Amino acid sequence: MSFKKRESMLAYVLVGPVVLFYAVIFVYPLLQMLLLSFQKYDFYSPPVFTGFENYARLARDPELLDKLLNTLAYWCIGPVTIAASFVAALLMSKLKWGQGFFRSTFYGTSMAPMVALAVVFTYMFSPNHGIVNNLLTSLNLQPIEWLYDQTLAKIVVMFIFFFMNVGFYTILFLSGILGVDQNLYAAAELDGAGHWRKTVHITLPQIRPVMIFAAILMTISIFQMYGQIVILTKGGPYGSTETVFMYAMNKAFTDHQMGYAATIVVVLSIVLALVSYVILKIGEEKE
Amino acid sequence: MFARAKNTSVKKRISAGLAVAMLTVVLGACGGGGNGEATPSQSAGQSAESEGKQEVTLSMLIDSSNNEQNSAILNRAAEIASQNSDKYIIKVRLDTVPSTDMDKKVDVLAAGSNLPDLVASGPKAVWMKRGLLADLTEWFNASPLNGDYMYPSLLEEGRNGGKLYSVPIKADSIFLIYNKDLLEKAGIENTDFDSITWDEWVAMLEQIKQSGLKAANGKEVKGFTFRISTYETAPFIFSAGGEFFTQDGTQAVFGSPEAADGLAKLKSLVTAGYADKPETDYANWMSVFFNENAAFTITGGWSLTSYEEGGLDLGKLGFSTVPKIANSTSIFGPGLSFSVFESSKHKEAATELLTAIYSPDIYKQWLELTAGIPVLKSLSDDPQFANNPIKPVLSEQLNNIKPIHSDNAPSFWTKYDQLLEKVILTDTDINSQQQSLQTAIQQEIQDNLK
């Protein structure tokens, strides 16, 4: 056997397990889900093929529309997180000393388990003994029913998301900023560019691929928010913090409507793929 | 050069070895039981020649709380069962899951034909109707439990279509718990009662409000604390004469004026400033009472452990039946029961384990762990339970309880929780909200009964 063939075989052997793993863990369930979206299935009776009935139901489900609007509302936190992370990364990149400390501190927020964070936030925002309300009353201010108001509850959920993600994106942007060719800054300085112009005309365009990656990743994670909402608000008050993904989970495991839940997830995946493609295209055009 | 060639060859061998190892891991994961635990079918093969008995490992799905104590009690039960058995050496392997996820876990395991041998949970009519559980009628009739069981209505919850599928091991219900100390400080004379009317209760709440008591944490002591959940709110609806579903679960009836009245009365406590801000989180809600920020609460005996862990002296507590609006009917607390899955390959061994679980030695350990009262006459006067302060009230309450037969409408609990949030936190009309949800739930029942 020639050297090239041996190398090629070794490559297949090395890649094979990963492909197999991917096929078993991702591709097969995805195909099953696609199939399920054309069926009615409640765990106990055999699946029944119903054609496009589940897809037609999507269009006339007002509750789903509500959950979609909730999810889109959460999307507002995406740009805020990206902007805050970028500013933090930019400031951190200027540090002459202590950058390692700040990096670890920022990244620490992303390392905390989501469940633990959500439980802590539940205690913090409790109407009776929450630290936040205790602080307000100690300042002679009125306590706020954080988790009982539809808008405030959403803001608290977004705050957790921000807290959990800002560290990760800061480190991501910092690595991008530190990778920018320093000669570009030197040349700009010779032309009399200040901090603002250097940031807008050099840093931002140079880290655009990182930004696009961050925007796509963040969109996906916002659509997939589940655990923190379940622990913090259980979807309340009266369902106002539920996302489309949570709605699908409830349809599947509470209402036993697996087929309809699969349909929601299939459509959600297509929407996410389209949104990601649009973000990617916008990034490419600018380049 | 030779050295470099040898080095390359070693590297290739290591790479190939790693690849094979990875492949083995992946294939192993694909072919195994998924969670790495032995499945019932695997345990079937574990036969022991010793003592001429077959060794059987029974898998049991159980709530993940008290895991250590559960393991100890069940291992002891397995030892007793093995000693009493002519055929089996029984071992138990626990598959733990949070109680809130128990139904989902059973759904998924049933769909994958991978149910364990036994399950420890409240009686679930939906599992009985779906044929998931094994018929225990014969076992029960032949066991000493038959004739010793005190609460027929509780046992009825383990039946479906005339067959018995699960035997509740402890009796639970929701009742009124009060802090005698706080009542006394508020100037209330009667601080030791085991039943109360709605008007008497409201008068006490008013007195507490007027007293302006402050708790150790500096906060005002409220009369009452409650959690926004269907389970803890149901006693108010039942007490007002309302119902949720008909006994056979085919009709949703919570849109009645009586049910609306129960909810309106509960809401009036918040509006009048008698209740602390309602909580949705169980732990936060518990803390309001153990921090002595409220004098009354409505819950079951299982909460006493949380209060004690929170530092509350249980000697301060008094117990009463649910405040009587039309009557003092409360919600059925199914507590704990054990069932055998129909798919189990070891039904005989599983029923032998059940017999051991209900033997006095083990039974008393369960009750101690779960703060329940015995359902068996023979243990009713046992010194371990005779002085239990909740026993008289709970016994009274258990003769006047109702279950919620929501089996045909699985979404009911989530949707009713949402209705409660809306009703209690906003000024929405209770009647119309209940009517509207009742219509939606009735539609769900009809769809599921098709």
Structure description:
Chain A: The chain crosses the membrane at residues 12-31, 72-92, 104-125, 155-180, 210-231, 258-280. Chain A: This is Lactose ABC transporter permease. Chain A: It holds the Pfam family BPD_transp_1. Chain A: It comes from Paenibacillus agaridevorans. The complex is a heterodimer of chains A (287) and B (450). Chain A is mostly helical and 287 residues long. Chain A has a domain at 75-242: MetI-like (MetI-like fold), CATH 1.10.3720. In chain A, 75% of the residues lie in helices and 1% in strands. Chain A has helices spanning 3-36, 53-59, 62-74, 77-93, 99-111, 114-124, 131-138, 150-178, 182-190, 195-206, 208-223, 227-232, 244-253, 258-286; strands spanning 39-40, 48-49. Chain A has a two-stranded antiparallel sheet with strand order 1-2. In chain A, strand 1 and strand 2 (48-49) form a beta hairpin. The longest helix of chain A is centred in the N-terminal third of the chain and has 34 residues, at 3-36. Chain A is globular and about 75 Å long. In chain B, strand 1 (54-63), helix 3 and strand 2 (88-97) form a beta-alpha-beta unit. By secondary structure, chain B is of the alpha/beta class. Residues 1-49 of chain B have low confidence and may be disordered. Helices cover 47% and strands 14% of the residues of chain B. Chain B folds into 2 domains: 40-169 and 335-370, Periplasmic binding protein-like II (D-Maltodextrin-Binding Protein, domain 2); 173-333 and 404-449, Periplasmic binding protein-like II (D-Maltodextrin-Binding Protein, domain 2), CATH 3.40.190. In chain B, helix 10 crosses helix 11. The longest helix of chain B has 30 residues, at 2-31. Chain B has helices at residues 2-31, 40-44, 67-84, 102-111, 125-129, 137-142, 152-156, 180-185, 198-211, 230-239, 257-271, 282-290, 303-309, 347-357, 360-370, 377-380, 383-386, 391-398, 412-425, 430-449; strands at 54-63, 88-97, 118-121, 159-160, 163-164, 167-168, 170-173, 175-179, 222-225, 294-299, 317-320, 330-333, 337-340, 373-374, 401-402. Chain B has 20 helices and 15 strands. At the A-B interface, helix 1 of A face helix 1, helix 4, helix 12 and helix 19 of B.
